[in-house]
Amino acid sequence: MTLTVFKKYNKITPYQRKKLYMYIWTVGWLIALIGFTPLLIVLLNGVNISLIRIHLILIYYATLIFLLWGNYGFHDRRMPRFWVYAALITGLWDVSGTLLQFPFLLTSIPSVSFQTAMIVQCGLLFLSNKETGGTAKYITGWSFILWGFHRFDYLFLHSNTSFLPWGYLIGTIKASETCLLVTLHSIRHTCAEEENERKCRSMENCFTTGTFIA
Prior knowledge:
single chain, 214 residues, mainly alpha, 8 helices, globular
């Protein structure tokens, strides 16, 4: 789905108007696709989550950093370095705690809370953007926020091994839904920019022609 929509974006968008954030988003979603697909298969086959926890940590952080970076770019803002530094600190803490077999909550609360904050921040960027309107930005923003709170559920449901695979499946569906909404919203935004540019060019031509005739 990610590749299909991205291909459509490349097809309808002139080279000079292609946006860096679309490429950043695509890298993030591809990391998630490559990382979570085998993870989901393994979980559905009943393998212990502790064997793949570090894999999950790395995939989640890589995906969310690219996703947040792309969201800041889409809204013409520079991503604060705080997010990168905090991701490195909480990610290293989570990996170290897993290797040293720290208690689950002690290891996971900092990282899962920060991951939730990154996803929610993506949603808040959409909701707070005054330059874009319509219901699309609200649907996209709240989709991010709901996905973020679903991520936080992991702290309470990790011990329920029968529900865990389905929790990951719901998370994957929610992430895919958000991916589609974000990409379609950005394509719509690009098309709107091009339409406004065409209107401005047309008005400029009319003004130039009128001035010349006068």
